[in-house]
Amino acid sequence: MRLVPILPLVALAVLLAGCKDDHVSPRDVTPPAAPRGLYSVTGDQQVTLHWLANTESDVQGYRIYEASCASGSSCPYNRVGTTTGTTYVVNGLANGATRYFAVAAVDYSGNESDLSYNDVYDTPRPSGSGATLANFVNGTAGAGWDFSAAMTRASNDPATDIFYGDNGSISQLFTPDVMTDIQDMGWASNLDVIDYAPPAGWSPTGSVEAIAGHCYVVWTRDNHFAKFRISSVSPSSVVFDWAYQTDPGNGELRAKPVHEDGPVSRPIAWLR
What we know:
Layout: H1 9-17, E1 39-42, E2 46-50, E3 59-67, E4 78-83, E5 87-91, E6 99-107, E7 120-122, E8 127-134, E9 144-146, E10 151-153, E11 162-166, E12 171-174, E13 181-187, E14 207-209, E15 214-219, E16 225-233, E17 237-244, E18 256-257
Antiparallel strand pairs: 1-2, 2-5, 3-4, 3-6, 6-7, 7-18, 8-17, 9-10, 9-11, 11-12, 12-14, 13-15, 15-16, 16-17
């Protein structure tokens, strides 16, 4: 009977040590970088967030956070959604109520980054398209627009904010009183190009030429801001898309990023 020699204990230990799996890597505990370039587009009871994609190869997706005040304040950020893309729509928001947003990146190991450093604040507001005003020269009915009620009115109705007229040689939009201001912001590809109401430059006559493709901002007599973009104009009517900020004195018509200590202050010239 052949006997198998017994290995010395030292040799056995060395042999066993050599069986270790060298392919096992330590667990990844390094989070991704905080997402950059976050901005939002204001909507009607919603906000659309956009940001730049992270460059790490192991990023799985993003978590979306919302709060009622800016970061560093007493109110916490709550997660409201997740996505694998770089766009997210937050629905179910109250028009006229400002909310704050941030985004974090998450990798395949579950590591979550810091929140995006520059928070975004946004105040949703009602909007609409295809509003049509008649020419008040042909009759006052249906020539005026009330932004707060989102409806046409007579050009001489006390609730009218703007009204339309064409005298055969020029098409114009008018404000009904000296407490309502209007300004032509120039041509724009869409209504979202106009993000904030201007602090100055209002029409001294309270009227502007109606030009298809141009955007306009209105400051109403009760301290609300609105914007609209003309899609078509003719001697008999004008058609436009619009948005109205229900938060009094808030010039935000499309959101802007803010610093970590809160939103950019509004110029005092905006206060009547």
